[in-house]
Design goal:
The protein is 0% helix and 32% strand. It is mostly beta strands and 154 residues long. The chain has one domain: Hexapeptide repeat proteins (UDP N-Acetylglucosamine Acyltransferase, domain 1, 3 Solenoid). It has a nine-stranded mixed sheet, with no helix packed on it. Strands 5-8-11-14-17 form a five-stranded parallel sheet, with no helix packed on it. Strands 2-4-7-10 form a four-stranded parallel sheet, with no helix packed on it. A hairpin with a 4-residue loop joins β20 and β21. The radius of gyration is 15 Å and the shape is globular.
């Protein structure tokens, strides 16, 4: 199946899996890797040191910064914010950006903020508007600011 890229998007990478759709006004840098059957919605920015698995949905208004690893079957809600530098300063970059991992089957609700260096576990769910400041275990629902454990997911 074909890769579909809207003509208003700037896609520099060739590492995109079959049946992936990239909608309007996206920018994807040359070293990024995107799996098969992904849906990259309107106005998404994806940096170089990024790996996105298969069957991933990235909704509108998301920036995916260097150091982010997204597993398979992940949902990233609209306007989710990721970070990759704990102590950012203008024109002063760390030697290496912190890695953040979103494991298979996880869902991150709209408007959430995910601080760098954390792992969101398999099939975990982050409630809309939450601020994730530490690792989230597999199969758990976390929400709030800062995000706190709510319940186990079946």
């Amino acid at each position: 199946m074909a890769i579909k890229i809207h003509p208003t998007s700037e896609v520099q990478t060739v590492k995109i899996g079959d049946n992936t759709t990239i909608w309007q006004y996206c920018v994807i840098l040359k070293e990024a890797t995107i799996g098969c059957n992904c849906n990259i919605n309107f106005n998404v920015f994806i940096e170089n040191d990024v790996v996105i698995g298969d069957n991933v949905t990235v909704k509108s208004g998301v920036q995916v910064w260097d150091g982010l690893r997204i597993g398979n079957n992940v949902f990233i809600g609209p306007n989710v914010t990721f970070t990759n530098d704990k102590y950012p300063r203008s024109k002063q970059y760390p030697e290496e950006f912190l890695k953040t991992t979103v494991q298979d089957g996880a869902s991150i609700g709209a408007g959430s903020v995910v601080l760098c260096g954390v792992t969101i576990g398999r099939n975990a769910m982050i409630g809309a508007g939450s601020v994730v400041t530490k690792d989230i275990p597999d199969n758990e629902l976390w929400l709030g600011n800062p995000a706190r454990f709510k319940r186990k997911l079946v």
